Amino acid sequence: MTQTVELPLWLFVLILLFAVVTLASHFLFPSVRWFFRRRLERAVARLNERLERPIEPFRLARRYDMIQRLIYDPQVAQAVSDHAASRGIPENVAFEDARRYAREIVPSFSAFTYFSFAIRAARLLSNAIYRVRLGSYDEGLLQVIDRDATVVFVMNHRSNMDYVLVTYLVAKRSALSYAVGEWARVWPLSLLIRAMGAYFIRRRSQTELYRKVLAAYVRLATQGGVTQAIFPEGGLSLTGALSPPKHGLLRYIIDGNAGSGKDVVFVPVALNYDRVLEDKILTKAARAGERRFRARIGVVMWRMLRQLWLWATGRYHRFGAAAVTFGRPLSLSELPAEEGRDHARALSAELMYRIGEVVPVLPVPLVCYLLVTRGAMSESALRQAVTEVTARMPLASVHMPAHSHDFAVQSALQQLRRRHLVRLSGGMITPDVSQMDLLRFYAKSIAHLVPPALEPPQAMEGDIAPDHPSDAAGAKGNSASAGS
Predict the structure, then answer these.
(1) pLDDT digit string, tens, across residues 293-315
(2) Looking at CB atoms within 10 Å, which of 24, 46, 128, 442 has the fewest?
(3) Are 365 and 99 contacting, i.e. CB atoms less than 8 angstroms apart?
């Protein structure tokens, strides 16, 4: 027992390394994790005192624990068995597939990352690119929502800036958990998005097992009171108008909440921009009839460097206004409980209608609408037309000075002329024929808000005739055709 044992130096170092790792993992790391977790819990408790809707314990659970809870969910376990039987594979292989899906979906929320970094970055970026405007809305409608209810913000999808803008504007209310598509599954962006509490969803190549795992996560998050933000259109609008909604996530929320006794309140959110960053990419995809589009990283970096150069040389101009308006909240308990009714489809149609009611009317979209539908006109005639149209629009949607539209029209024309979308000749403002796709893209975003009596006989070659929320013959049916 007391004899000397000789070992090579490399083997001694290896044994020492294993000993250190064992000591740390069994004795030091748990203590360190406990120390930091206690500090985190105290910080979150202080933060919750400032938020209208506190951060839920569900979001603070360890990601590993959440994944385990998800893959051992009874409904997922049954889906694993069915998947193995249908594919003719062992259940342990199907179980590993479920684990992989769960790891792909479940976020790793960090309150520090969200409130210390993401909120500040969102505020800085939003105000650097746009003049941000929050539309008038009834504050009382949001404040009276039951604190025990799960809140789901339902938004139209105009740009990838939607995530940034809404995160910034609701920072004092709660931390949002976004449902994001496959575009964000790129390292290291995916790490940041997971830390902000977003969960990834696949738009394509979905198996029944994947859908069951996703449905289980949405059910647990909804029952856990997580404040969520979803885009029912499922992707960016290629035409500028509201797109037909997808029903999957809404169906998961409805089915998963059945019998829980917990109410779910949907808050419609409408966004619009004087300039959408991806407008050329989107209109090109619309012409090609192909939704799959991808901005190469080299193109993105070049544009960022160009804007930085313009800022450094004093020639940088912000891209006009960006506006957000909240619509009328809708409680899940308000839906009629009729047997055989497709509640997800009815809910999506109603929510798209309420979003369409409050889409912000900004200078550039309105000027584009008037130029495309009425043709060339003088600046004075354009100002008169703007005054005439906005006077008949819903007040909550109009984001322009109430008594003077001169500045709004001039700023819109400045934006359009800078981008060579219109030409000024002989005192007349004329749309550039080669840029009609872009002009229509912006015009269609607010076309459904133009009162029928003010529509020209022929509207944009017949492809912008809007569905009016005020149409007595079937307001909700019309909104469904424009966005369902």
Answers:
(1) 655 545 556 666 777 788 778 87
(2) 46
(3) no
> End-to-end alpha-carbon separation of the chain, Å?
81
Reading the block at residue 135, the tokens are: 């539309």
Local confidence band at 91 (pLDDT 50, 70, 90 cut-offs)? very high
- Ordered domains of the chain (ranges, CATH): 104-277+319-357 (3.40.1130.10), 363-483 (1.10.10)
DSSP 41-79: HHHHHHHHTT-SSPPPHHHHS-HHHHHHHHHT-HHHHHH
User: Rg of the chain over CA atoms, in angstroms?
Assistant: 26
Beta bridge partners of 269: 155, 326
For β-strands 422-425 and 428-431, DSSP reports them as antiparallel
> What is the per-residue burial (b if ≥16 Cβ within 10 Å, else e) of 299-333?
eeeeeeeeeeeeeeeeeeeebbbbbbbbbebbebe
Strands 330-331 and 264-273: antiparallel
Give the tens place of pLDDT for each residue, 373-426.
999 999 999 999 998 898 888 776 788 765 677 888 999 999 999 999 999 888
CB 155 within 8 A of CB 270: yes
Residue 369's nearest CA partner among 426, 422, 300, 315 is 422
Q: Tell me the average pLDDT across 217-231.
A: 91
Q: Which two tokens mark 64?
A: 């590993």
Average pLDDT over residues 467-473: 40
CA atoms of 186 and 209, how far apart (whole Å): 24
pTM of the model: 0.81
- Work out the burial of residue 63: count CB atoms within 10 Å of its CB; fewer than 13 is exposed, 13-18 middle, 19 or more buried: middle
Q: What are phi and psi of 265, to 5 degrees?
A: -115, 125
Q: Check if the beta carbon of residue 242 is closer than 8 Å to that of residue 270.
A: no
pLDDT of residue 247: 86
pLDDT class of 472 with cuts at 50, 70, 90:
very low
Packing angle of the helix pair 343-357, 248-257 (nearest 10 deg): 120
Cβ burial, residue 445 (10 Å; 0-12/13-18/19+): buried
**Dihedral (CA of 247, 253, 255, 256) sign:** positive
Q: What are phi and psi of 75, to 5 degrees?
A: -70, -35
Decide if 275 contacts 320 (C-beta within 8 A): yes
Query: Over 50: is that where the pLDDT of 471 sits?
Result: no
